[in-house]
Automatic annotation (TrEMBL), chain A:
Keywords in alphabetical order: Oxidoreductase, Thiamine pyrophosphate
Cofactors (names): thiamine diphosphate
Oxidoreductase found in the keyword field: yes
Gene, per the UniProt record: pdhB
Species annotation: Tetragenococcus osmophilus
Gene3D superfamilies: 3.40.50.920, 3.40.50.970
InterPro entries, A to Z: THDP-binding, Transketo_C/PFOR_II, Transketolase-like_Pyr-bd, Transketolase_C
GO molecular function: oxidoreductase activity
Domain Transketolase-like pyrimidine-binding residue range list: 4-179
Oxidoreductase in keyword set: yes
Record's protein name: 2-oxoisovalerate dehydrogenase subunit beta
From TrEMBL, chain B:
Protein name (database record): Pyruvate dehydrogenase E1 component subunit alpha
Oligomeric form and interacting partners: Heterodimer of an alpha and a beta chain.
Lineage: Bacteria, Bacillati, Bacillota, Bacilli, Lactobacillales
Presence of keyword Coiled coil: yes
Gene this chain is encoded by: pdhA
NCBIfam families (UniProt xref): PDH_E1_alph_x
GO molecular function, one term: pyruvate dehydrogenase (acetyl-transferring) activity
Function summary: The pyruvate dehydrogenase complex catalyzes the overall conversion of pyruvate to acetyl-CoA and CO(2). It contains multiple copies of three enzymatic components: pyruvate dehydrogenase (E1), dihydrolipoamide acetyltransferase (E2) and lipoamide dehydrogenase (E3).
Length: 325, 368
């Protein structure tokens, strides 16, 4: 085992799958020779050759259409969209085509496609690079949205995604890429899709979150602990479909819950979870469901991210408010 | 029995390529190789164009340094592309509409965007995007190809209004692979709308070499499918770029429909200063080869031969540019920090309920 950053864990997962299954194809803008703009695919072309790891012309709709066609031909496509903000160019292929083909064809076809893309705020990219658009895809039936919060999960979830016969949108938070290291086993292992993880156990309040907000929530939980407030943190890992079982079990234990997302309040995942909790566990609740999110503006200008993005303090304040309700 | 028809597919390819020669007026030493492409510009205008190109080179150098000092944000280097960018821009009027991509900041500033605002855009500050009404331009576009389709709309609008103005827009060789690229030239062609569409072919889309971007020998020939004229010009040659641009502008402004222009150029620097390392995909030999084609060298030689340029003159332009940049940075530094409440207020003309609530919430937070 070795200490790895999240991006190293991702590269590792790709290498494991490219090695194991020659039908796995990794491609996209600059992923070959250059190893991707973040180097997530560094050296993979060297190791596995241009047949398995290759650059594409610059067109996202083309990349996803290509993935569709390759998957139909029996390949496991692992395309990269260079930054998730560029996904709009490919929305028809992803949501209009890939997500619904299995259903349309009565279950007679599989589309094993894992779209990887960096996203997420806090690294001062120009417009449309960082936007949290997971909620948009999460609204579409027929496609999973997976978001790891740490290196161990990143590798295991990516392997599971590539092996899955259903299409997956696998999102990599840019701020997590190189911000810390963790033990990551060599070789293959899977972290199951559709299963949330418990990032921290606690009894007084449940914090449901994912991606970079897991770390903010962990920081918040440490401060809460000083005042004897014990927070349980659920790391969703798959944000569509959501593992409501794990959430409900936790809410029934703690009787209080907040849902934390980096995205704007109106943008999806937290709203869905809040309404499901209300539907399934309202009688267990001793306080309203709290939400921490960004405001309902367009993703902010680089310089303003610090004041716009939700952080540990916001989580801590909201948790106290709900605990003291 | 009739003989089966055979088709010479290779010949079909060759026939197309023959239609798209590279227009060039000055060779790399600054000698005129095609008198018919030497622009009708006064001595004063020639000096002005050269001055703009020198200014742009200084802006590139200073922006690189400022970026490294953390005093600037996003920056996409422009050195090498001065003829492609500024000699093309020189052919347009202030009332013509510019829809730039992320690398086209020099044209934007010459079109009227105050430099300090360009710096604020780079830093990720909204004030950089607050354009005066008489600035006929949009902020630089990040989504590759997106402003191309929008340009088709502007072009049609100008035509409908009976204006003799045009829209002009830029993308790269990589951008020419986007669906939006085809849709834009096809729409504009279909409406015979007033647009000039540039592809600055600088040889690479980040790391992807031009030869892998498309099997087409030129990008200019992509115009054929849209039924519009396409021209390839030497993008390191300010005269060829200017003259072709001027003629294309006239053609489009007079209601004949759009033109596609491919400028064959090179960026000396990295793709952007956000972590790109060009040595991963480009050789020193290739860099050296292109440095010899530098647009400033050939323009300088031409002007010096005519007694219109000197080392002192160039030094003076460079010094003025440095001062201008310094002042613009100082001005950008003075702009107050952004507020979430201002963003919320800018979201809609009429504020819906969620926004009103959030303005209250953030006002309280910001006054703490
Ligand atoms: C829709 C979209 N896809 C991908 C990108 C990421 N990206 C930015 S620049 C670039 C390469 C562009 O190359 P080219 O069009 O040749 O222009 P150049 O940068 O060389 O001027 C890529 C892939 C983007 N900004 N927008």
């Amino acid at each position: 085992m070795a200490q790895k950053t999240m991006i190293q864990a991702i590269t590792d997962a790709l290498a494991v799958e490219l090695e194991k299954d020659k039908d796995v194809l990794v491609f996209g803008e600059d992923v070959g020779l250059n190893g991707g703009v973040f180097r997530a695919t560094a050296d993979l072309q060297d190791k596995f050759g241009e047949e398995q790891v290759f650059d594409t012309p610059l067109a996202e709709s083309g990349i996803m259409g290509l993935s569709f066609g390759l998957a139909l031909e029996g390949y496991r496509a692992v395309p990269e969209i260079q930054f998730f903000g560029f996904v709009f160019e490919a929305m028809d292929e992803i949501v209009g085509q890939i997500a619904r083909t299995r259903y349309r064809m009565g279950g007679t076809r599989n589309l094993p496609i894992t779209l990887r893309a960096p996203f997420g705020g806090g690294v001062h990219t120009p417009e449309l690079h960082s936007d949290n658009l997971e909620g948009m895809i999460a609204q579409a039936p027929g496609i999973r949205v997976v978001i790891p919060s740490n290196p161990y999960d990143a590798k295991g979830l990516l392997i599971s995604s590539i092996r899955s016969n259903d299409p997956v949108v696998y999102l990599e938070h840019m701020k997590l890429y190189r911000s810390f290291r963790e033990e990551v086993p060599d070789g293959e292992y899977e972290v199951p899709l559709d299963k949330a993880g418990i990032a921290r156990e606690g009894n007084d309040i449940t914090i449901v979150t994912y991606g970079a907000m897991v770390r903010e929530s962990l920081k918040a939980a440490e401060n809460l602990e000083k005042d004897n407030i014990s927070a349980e943190i659920i790391d969703l890992r798959t944000v569509s479909p959501v593992d409501m079982e794990t959430i409900i079990a936790s809410v029934e234990k703690t009787n209080r819950v907040i849902v934390v997302q980096e995205a704007q309040k109106q943008a999806g995942v937290a709203a869905k979870i809040s309404s499901d909790i209300a539907e399934k566990a309202i009688l267990s609740l001793e306080a309203p469901i709290g939400r921490v999110s960004a405001p309902d503006t367009v993703f902010p200008f680089g310089q303003a991210e610090g004041i716009w993005l939700p952080n540990a303090t916001d989580v801590e304040e909201k948790a106290r408010e709900i605990v003291n309700f | 029995m009739a003989k089966k028809k055979t088709i010479d597919f290779q010949a079909l390819l060759n026939d197309v390529d023959a239609l798209f020669p590279t227009y060039q007026a000055l060779d790399q030493d600054g000698n005129v190789v095609d008198e018919s492409l030497v622009p009708d510009l006064s001595d004063h205008e020639l000096v002005e164009l050269m001055s703009q190109m020198v200014w742009s080179r200084v802006l590139d150098q200073r922006s690189t340094a400022l970026n490294r000092q953390g005093r600037l944000g996003f920056f996409a280097p422009t050195a090498g592309q001065e003829a492609s960018q500024l000699a093309s821009h020189f052919a347009f009027e202030k009332e013509d509409v510019l829809l730039p991509a992320y690398r086209d900041v020099p044209q934007l500033v010459k079109h009227g965007l105050p430099l300090y605002q360009a710096f604020l855009w780079s830093r990720g500050h909204v004030v950089g995007n607050e354009y005066d009404d008489d600035l006929q331009a949009l902020p630089p576009q990040i989504i590759i190809g997106a402003q191309y389709v929008q340009a088709a709309g502007v072009a049609l609008g100008l035509k409908k209004r009976g204006k003799n103005n045009v829209v002009f827009t830029y993308t790269g060789d990589g951008g020419s692979s986007q669906g939006d690229f085809y849709e834009a030239i096809n729409f504009a062609g279909s409406y015979k709308a007033n647009g000039v569409f540039y592809v600055q072919n600088n040889g690479f889309a980040i790391s992807m070499p031009r030869e892998h971007q498309t099997a087409a020998t030129t990008i200019a020939q992509k115009a054929v499918a849209a039924g519009i004229p396409g021209i390839q010009v030497d993008g390191m040659d300010p005269f060829a770029v200017y003259t072709v641009s001027k003629l294309a502008r006239e053609w489009a402004a007079n209601g004949n429909g759009p033109v596609l222009i491919e400028t064959v150029t090179y960026r000396y620097g990295a793709h952007t200063l956000s972590g790109d390392d060009p040595t991963r995909y480009r050789s020193k030999e290739l860099d050296d080869e292109w440095q010899k084609k530098d647009p400033l060298i050939r323009f300088r030689n031409y002007l010096e031969n005519k007694g219109l340029w000197s080392e002192e003159k160039e030094e003076e332009i460079m010094e003025n540019a440095r001062q201008e940049i310094k002042d613009a940075i100082a001005e950008a530094d003075k702009v107050p920090k952004q507020k979430v409440t201002d963003f919320l207020k800018n979201m809609f003309k009429e504020q819906p309920q969620n926004i009103q609530e959030q303005i209250k919430f953030y006002e309280a937070k910001e006054s703490k």
